[in-house]
Amino acid sequence: MVEWTEQERSTINKIFGSLNYDDIGPKALRRCLIVYPWCLKYFGDFGATHNAEAIQKNDKIAKHGIVVLHGLDLALKNMDCIKATYAKLSVLHSEKLHVDPDNFKLLSDCLAIEIASLMKSDFTPDVQASFQKFLAVVVSALGKQYH
Ligand code: ZNH
């Protein structure tokens, strides 16, 4: 089981408590799809092309970015059993969506970059360390049901 210090718990809760999901979710997913264009193939029915402007303007991508961010609430509310909490979502991404699990890490890095640019000097190395640990546990849990 992953151990969390009180400091880590409070830092992670503070970050998420200050986030506007409707803003940061779309930004993180768009960044991921623009920087790592192969990720777009999983969103075929969203109708976006490999073009930054099309990705920025796509409402379905924006909405899905919000869904993904709310997906992180699961981990936030269940920090002591993240692996079990994501079992279903892991099966979905593996067996139904066939998302290469390497991409979870890429999206989590894009989210870190968006949060860094929002928080600026408040995103200290210490804060980043807690945040990256949280995301690493989520990424690992999402990849757990892959065979
Ligand atoms: Zn994912 C879906 C989360 C990543 C792709 N996702 C989804 C959902 C959720 C999530 C919550 C919904 C589900 C239901 O409906 O039930 N994701 C998530 C998270 C993460 C992710 C948390 C990390 C962090 N994804 C991802 C990636 C990708 C994806 C990276 C690719 C690249 N997802 C996806 C898809 C889907 C999902 C494709 C489906 C969509 C639709 O709607 O169609």
Automatic annotation (TrEMBL):
Family stated for the protein in its record: Belongs to the globin family.
The entry's keywords: Heme, Iron, Metal-binding, Oxygen transport, Transport
GO cellular component entries: blood microparticle; haptoglobin-hemoglobin complex; hemoglobin complex
Ribosomal protein as UniProt keyword: no
Single GO MF descriptor: oxygen binding
Pfam families found in the cross-reference section: Globin
An individual GO BP term: hydrogen peroxide catabolic process
Key word S-adenosyl-L-methionine present: no
Domain Globin residues, every copy: 3-147
Lineage, top ranks: Eukaryota, Metazoa, Chordata, Craniata, Vertebrata
Full protein name: Hemoglobin subunit beta-1-like
Organism: Xyrichtys novacula
Domain of life: Eukaryota
InterPro entries in the record: Globin (IPR000971), Globin-like_sf (IPR009050), Globin/Proto (IPR012292), Hemoglobin_b (IPR002337), Hemoglobin_oxygen_transport (IPR050056)
